[in-house]
Amino acid sequence: MTSNQVLSEVEYDVVGKRPVRPDGVDKVTGRAQYGDDTNLTGTLRAKVLRSPHAHARIKFIDTSKAEALPGVRAVITAKDLPFASLSKKELGGEYTSLKFASDHMMASDKALFKGHPVAAIAAVNAHVAESAMALIEVDYEVLKPVVDVREAMQDGAPLLHEDLRTNDMGETGEKPSNVATHMSYSIGDLDKGFAEADLVLEKEYTTSTVHQGYIEPHNTTAFWNSDGQLNLWTSTQGSFQVRGTVASILRLPVSQVKVTPMEIGGGFGGKITAYLDAICAVLSKKTGAPVKALMTRTEVFEASGPAPASWMRVKIGVKNNGKMTAVETEMAMDAGAYPGSPVMQAIVCAFACYDVENGKVDGYDVVDNKPKTAAYRAPGAPQAAFAVESLIDEICAELNMDPIEFRLLNAAKEGTRRIEGLVARRIGLVECLEVARDHDHYKSKIDGPNGRGVACGYWPNRGFQSSVVMTVNYDGVVSLLMGSVDIGGTRASIAQQTAETLGIGYEDVKPTVVDTDSIGYTFITGGSRTCFATGLAAINAAEDVKSQMISRAAKIWDTNEDDIEYVAGVVQHKSDEELKLTFKDLARQLATTGGSVSGRASVDPSGEGNGYAVHIADVTVDPDTGKTDVTRFTAVQDAGKAIHPSYVEGQMQGGAVQGIGWALNEEYFFDDSGKMMNPTFLDYRMPISLDLPMIDTVIVEVANPGHPYGVRGVGEVAIVPPMAAVGNAVSAATGNRMRSLPITPGKILEADWENGKS
Known about the structure:
single chain; Aldehyde Oxidoreductase, domain 4; 7-stranded mixed β-sheet; 29 strands; about 25% strand
């Protein structure tokens, strides 16, 4: 049984309740339209020819036989993308970014990972397109690949990009390198801090490449009309992100590209990058017909962005009483074929749970012959937490100190300055730790071949731009238009904030996610920003509506607006009690007082509020086989204010489950040639319901001062602690410290052997 609790500070009428989701009926009845449900008249099907090599120079491509096959309407290669005809001089400072973006979409001179697109075909059906792919001749010069982040950093490692130089704290390196960027932050006096310590521990940790595991594969339908307008229907976490990427690669004005986001079958950060959109667009332009592409599951694994593998070194100094005196970490993450791993987020999050006077963090963004990494729910933070929280667990064992009491002693709180320099506002880490300490799970007894682990997690959350438009219909129902794709309850949470602000019922708000031509620019649904930022846009738009409704009432009553107030969905005169109209009554008079009322707002807010979580995991490890079972799991998290507690609980449980899979099962297996050996759900082992306990949740509400209802993002911090919590539990159960993920039965038995236990 789950034991879900909400420790609430403030109660509202609509916010904090659990209404029915607006999209629920369409989804359970099968009427919801996902990307692959888009079927325009005359649609052609596209297939992408992908490199069989992880690292190879493309000497030439002959598409003539494929083009001659009956039913084939077009074949394209990188030569059909604008970058091929633009000189370095013409592009100037845009050259490198456009080359990387264009080559990622379709390789020009080199294939940099197995599955890298090298050509694409549009045909009357998928079967013809498949047959045509076999007729394309590509001559490759196979090069040695590198798929380990540490090997890629070494002098003499195979170079992916001959013109890539390391950006080392703003200074550009002199020679080519696979290290794209080195970044660093520090605070205080590191040497002094370590000298003051009674105990200093330093260890290394590694994690493997893992995939987000969304159910729906990537898909796109494109129609480049004869008037020059490009229309895209796609599964994405950010329609404006797709618009910007496609416009950049194809050198188009953004106003010429319209993106309609369809319902999304999971994303977790992996549906931000546009993989098929520009390819389908060029095929559509060449054929004059709509073109649709859908990845296979193997293509999703081999050619879409996973979370990066990492190598991390952590050093912590403490006093005998457990007080930290100094911390240091060095982290390297593989970006895949092109720069852009989340190592910046990793080093920023690494020690963000703790108040430390002396610290230094270094991060390295490294390219290697893997698919370009993408966001995966708090990108970079879970890896960093695994390393830091594991070493803290070792320190607690050395000091014979309770793991939660140690964390409480060192916990970040309001006023704490983090290593990168930001100062925390009101945060709820201490409250989460206290709840975890007092929870029945933590107080319960554990013995035998079992272990318990605890870990903290942090994610900074985000603001960024959001736009909302709402119109009051004459029956009093509000039509709410937003640009934020709904991947985790966006329609419900934004509708709730709208209803609460207007003082009307949740059922009287009708939320709709619209295309890029129908709303102002809205950043991606990601970064734990949407409920906060789009919620603020909705609140501001609702305040605009309230102001206009007051104006309409003033016109009806022939009085001054200053004499009217809007209170809980009622417009009333401040001194004449007889002059009073409900929201719906006033809406019925809008047609005769000036027409529709529409409120709008575009925001780019700060004050997003940091997210913290504490997880407790119990495991049982079979001493003969090394098989690990998670037997109990509790997630405690500060949501600021849970707009829809059921959705928040779902986010917490989902993050915990994904973290458990990351900790115990999931990883990309590569052979010496750089080929992924397990690109199916049969071999890429995600946990299923039979592998998991029920996940208990406790929602802590420490209101974020940067939002009217106290909202903090909740979607990402839930995946940050579980890897470390499970790792610490396994280490407690076996007596062997596990420093490499995933913690497979083989690794457990090897550790037993090395320590003389087998």
